[in-house]
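Recall the central idea of this unit: under ordinary conditions, the amino acid sequence of a chain determines the structure it adopts. In this exercise we apply that idea directly, starting from the sequence alone.
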Amino acid sequence: MVETPQERRDPVCGMDLTDLPKVFEEHVAKKNFFFCSKTCAARFKTDPEKFQGEPMIHLHDVWKVFHDGDVTTEVLRGINIHIWPGDFTVIIGASGSGKSTLLNMIGFLDRPTKGLIRLEGKDVSALSEDERALLRSKKFGFVFQQYNLIPWLTAYDNVLLPLIFSMTKNGMKRERIVKHFGDIGLGKRMDHRPTELSGGEQQRVALLRALANNPEILIGDEPTGNLDSVTGDKILDMLIKLNREEGRTLIIVTHDADIAKRADQVITLKDGKTIPGYLEHVETYTE
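Accordingly, the structure predicted from this sequence is:
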């Protein structure tokens, strides 16, 4: 471990190392690299060329500040993170640490008060709302704790909605959608409305809806939070299978330490800032 002599950023997780009293140094290919943790240092050594390239998602000094009359709340305070293609990234932290707000930034559901957000090297911070919505529909699939299904539509029509709104030509065909309903045990429930489905069945429909556009990036905000442990494990296993076998980038907010331990990268938030991603923090900052 060495003292931090100047501003540096961890090439793996993207963390600003400036304010850390100590960092980890590794000498790779005749160069010195600095990291927030042994975890990031070990990951870097598995593929130095990759981690010196452009991450899929890059947040640089991102702030989110809310104003309510005379009250100002800084929810995110200078976030710097990298998310790499094909990674399973978990965001953890105590309630009120800014997890959901950060997820909204990553998925272009909200704009930062200040700071830069890049997707595959392109600055998306200044895009119009229509441009952001189109990019979101093509690149992202969202699975939320609340299923957000349209109550008067059938399960099948709910899954079809993203294809209608995005007018994409790359989405799943009817045959594949029907097959997926069978794969998740809902082959005979496609024509049922959400009120006729259990919570676990609704969440599985929500997952299929997130996959309808064949997104490269899957985002989940406590996607198993309202489910019993057995159903929650099934949903999580489906998401991780999509990540491991199909290479989809998976980003999940969770309080579950067991989920965090299965991830490639853990982003830990405390008071709107990232802290070094040691796995030892998982137990402390999950509830």
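The chain is about 30% helix and 25% strand.
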